[in-house]
Design brief:
The complex is a heterodimer of chains A (117) and B (116).
Chain A lengths: L3 E4 L2 E4 L5 E7 L5 E8 L3 E10 L2 E4 L7 E2 L9 E3 L8 E8 L12 E2 L3 E5 L1
Parallel strand pairs in A: 2-11
Antiparallel strand pairs in A: 1-3, 3-8, 4-5, 4-9, 5-6, 7-8, 9-10, 9-11
Chain B lengths: L2 E3 L4 E5 L4 E3 L2 E3 L5 E8 L6 E7 L7 E2 L2 E6 L4 E6 L8 E9 L7 E3 L3 E6 L1
Parallel strand pairs in B: 2-12
Antiparallel strand pairs in B: 1-4, 3-9, 5-6, 5-10, 7-8, 8-9, 10-11, 10-12
Classes of the chains: A mainly beta (117), B mainly beta (116).
């Protein structure tokens, strides 16, 4: 079954304690992305990756890191979490050509609810 | 800047009725795609329908259809014969293509409740 998985699904942590949210896809997609969802703000992009070892910032990258060592995995790292990073996080992936006028459907993971105390 | 506006934070409708969710967007680019995503209480993001901006014909998927007005930058979603399972948050979004980062720009969502 084609899917994007995220772990953990729920996490409660304390300020400053490093954490990693994993994301994995089994569709051999080149493009992967992280979003955060906050009430009244919709979803906003944190980081994205167009392929292995190619990552770049989205709209709200402060306080986050990512890596793309393998095509299937795209972990989100919070080196020193703060309460303002309490949010619902989504990983997404798609196969994309990068050509104007062409795009593929993005598949979303189930979400990770993070609370930073 | 790319923006999406959903002016109806909440809506409710009786089961079996038709409901229309509004969405306007702003971009100066010509190559883009528009989407409606559904987020039920499970929080999963589910693609409802997509529309290529270069196509004049409105997209349809079973009970879901869109009214795409490119000049007005409007992209409304119509749900016909609404069902209890349609209760969810609905997000309008678009992607500008050809720049590598296929970032989805989302609106703030409309919470739709179907009343039995």
């Amino acid at each position: 079954e084609a899917q994007v998985t995220q772990n953990p699904r729920y996490l409660i942590t304390v300020t400053g304690k490093k954490l990693t949210v994993t994301c994995s896809q089994n569709m051999n997609h080149e493009y992967m992305s992280w979003y955060r969802q906050d009430p009244g703000l919709g979803l906003r992009q944190i980081y994205y990756s167009m392929n292995v070892e190619v990552t770049d910032k989205g709209d709200v990258p402060e306080g986050y890191k990512v890596s793309r060592k393998e095509k299937r995995n795209f972990p989100l790292i919070l080196e020193s979490p703060s309460p303002n990073q309490t949010s619902l996080y989504f990983c997404a992936s798609s196969q994309t050509s990068g050509r104007a006028g062409s795009t593929d459907t993005q598949y979303f993971g189930p979400g990770t609810r993070l609370t930073v105390l | 800047a790319q923006t999406v506006t959903q002016s109806q934070p909440e809506m409710s409708v009786q089961e079996a009725e038709t409901v229309t969710l509004s969405c306007t967007y702003d971009t100066s680019e010509n190559n883009y795609y528009l989407f409606w995503y559904k987020q039920p209480p499970s929080r999963q993001m589910i693609l409802v329908i997509r529309q290529e901006a270069y196509k004049q014909q409105n997209a349809t998927e079973n009970r879901f259809s869109v009214n795409f007005q490119k000049a007005a930058k409007s992209f409304s979603l119509k749900i016909s014969d609404s069902q209890l399972g349609d209760t969810a948050m609905y997000f309008c979004a678009f992607i500008i293509t050809g720049f590598g980062n296929e970032k989805l720009t989302f609106g703030t969502g409309t919470r739709l409740t179907i009343i039995p």
